[in-house]
Amino acid sequence: MTVNALAPAARVLQRNLWVYRRTWRGSILGSFLTPLLYLTAMGVGVGSLVTAAGSPAFEGYEFVHFLGPGILAATCMQSAVFESTFPVLGKISWRRNYEAMLATPLGVPHLLAGELLWVGFRVLTISAVFLAVMTLFGIPRYPLALLAIPAAILTGLAFSASVIAFAATQRTGEGFSWLFRFVINPLFLFSGTFFPLSQLPDAVEWAAALTPLYHGVALVRGTVLAEQAFLGPWPLHVAYLVAFGAVGAFLAHRLLKRRLLS
Amino acid sequence: MPPGDEVLVHARALTKRFGDFTAVDAVDFDVRTGEAFGFLGPNGAGKTSTMRMIACSSPISDGELSVIGMDPRSQAPRIKSRIGVVPQIDNLDAELTVRENLLMYARYFDIAGEIAGRRADELLDFVQLGERAGDQVEPLSGGMKRRLTIARSLINDPELVILDEPTTGLDPQARHLVWERLYRLKQRGATLIITTHYMDEAEQLCDRLVVMDKAKIVAEGSPRDLIQRYSTREVLEIRVSDAVRATLNGRLEDVAERVEELPDRLLLYVGDGEQALEAVHDRQVPLESALVRRATLEDVFLRLTGRTLIE
Fold it and tell me: How many CB pairs under 8 A join A and B?
């Protein structure tokens, strides 16, 4: 995308940031509590029961080390997906913000790019706070761990683009509860977030490996722990997420255009 | 400023189709610089679809359209940077304050901070909302939201302002305030395009208008022209009981140039209403009520389509 297209998109981002100015404190607090609660309850609590350090299941890491990066990727997916559901449909139909924006020189590609920039910003803050909390638990190995932030942003954007495409086809919010129940929650559980996929039957393992979150988890875990065993073939993960996001963005553009400019 | 000769919006055989449904069927019109141009017609006549095509928010299906000398198909962003749009349903940003709504909208037009701030304050004064600048949008009354939407449409100092049913849903007092502001806007030289299904709004605001019905333009002219052409000067409205109505059988035909029978009353189109009323009395038709009034665009519409504007 050229600079010409990015400047108008930045104004759409700016609008969301203006709204965020009023709620950022609560939002940051939430981003802080999520990892704190997960790492304490599941990482330390459950972790002390499931394994002792050196268990082969976690490549020699304690459970909390294995779990933390997985939850980071999964939380970023959830937030990115949420930002792309009700807020986007609201701007399409209930509050009609997009109609108002399209009466200005802004076009559909700017709206889409602006929302993706916003999702990128949200994931940036969430993953940075998450990384900071994990640091309290002594989990990340810097400096490579810093790359978990772009990895999380890539994961979030890949999901966001396709969910915006889905939102552009919705009339009510009902489809979103289906999306969360039957797509997002299973992904949360079965993408290697809580346990290595090698624990599952081969067929399930293969199916899980085709989902985008699996690749996001692998990238984030591999970078946070600076561990090649988790990172695996990283260019493949990146390529998969980029391709998934590109297809999503293509569809989102088409469907938004059909919905908004009839 | 008197209307100029320069054509700002030019449409020939302009058509909008949604699948098999034709919303706008090959309409022709020209809007000239500085005039207030109206689209009058009932709901579903194709007014909003026409507006949306002019505003570049709906692709045209067929025909020719130019807006400020540009083609909406290829130059939408440039057209949009020079027009203002007031949509039928308010789409203010409920998550921003009154003033922020204007500032943010200025940003969408790439108008920078200081100029945007000055313009926002001027416009808030213009629509008499200066005291509400820091308030949230949601608690504002319908009339205030409408005025804010009008202020927002002016943030880019547009040459052309498109208003889709600017006072639908407002109470009479709020309507008059909006009319007054639009009149001031016109005095300042803006070209206005207004859709409405209120004949009084069209008469108040429009220099020239087209009457739309079932996707087509059925007449065009100034409000006074149209009334002269399609109606008489005065109208005698009478109500009679059903029993009396059954016995009329054209007894009143020679009293008026034309008689329109509506379900609840009869409209007699006449030059002199009082004289006609006397003639009705002479024929000893028992009336429940009678009213003499000036002819309006409503009568024009009834004449052209056989139906009333608001059904």
Answer: 64
3-state secondary structure B35-68: CEEEEECCCCCCHHHHHHHHCCCCCCCEEEEEEC
pLDDT at B1: 42
Distances (CA, A) of B282 to A203, B239, B277, B278: 97, 16, 9, 6
Mean per-residue pLDDT of chain A: 91
All structural domains of chain B, each given as residue ranges with its CATH number in brackets, are 7-222 (3.40.50.300), 232-294 (3.30.70.980)
Among A126-130, B5-9, B71-75, the minimum mean pLDDT is found in B5-9
B59/A261 Cβ within 8 A: yes
In total, chain B counts a number of residues equal to 311
Measured between CA atoms, how close is B111 to chain A, in angstroms? 11
Q: Kindly report the backbone phi and psi dihedral angles of residue B127, in degrees, each rounded to the nearest multiple of 5, phi listed first.
A: -95, 15
Q: What is the DSSP string of B266-296?
A: EEEEES-HHHHHHHHHHTTPPPSEEEEEE--
Could B81 and A104 be called an inter-chain contact, meaning their C-beta atoms sit closer than 8 Å? yes
The pLDDT value recorded for residue B284 is 85
Q: What is the pLDDT of residue A54?
A: 59
Mean pLDDT of the B116-124 span: 95
Is pLDDT above 60 for A155? yes
**Exposure string for B266-275, b = 16+ CB within 10 A, e = fewer:** bbbbbeebee
Subunit contact A106:B89, Cβ cutoff 8 A? no
Residue B4 pLDDT exceeds 70: no
Q: Are B296 and B227 in contact (CB under 8 A)?
A: yes
3-state secondary structure A102-164: HCCCCCHHHHHHHHHHHHHHHHHHHHHHHHHHHHHCCCCCCCHHHHHHHHHHHHHHHHHHHHH
pLDDT of residue A52: 60
ipTM of predicted assembly, 2 dp: 0.90
- Two structure tokens written together for B179: 């009319």
Burial bucket for residue B284 (CB in 10 Å: 0-12, 13-18, 19+): exposed
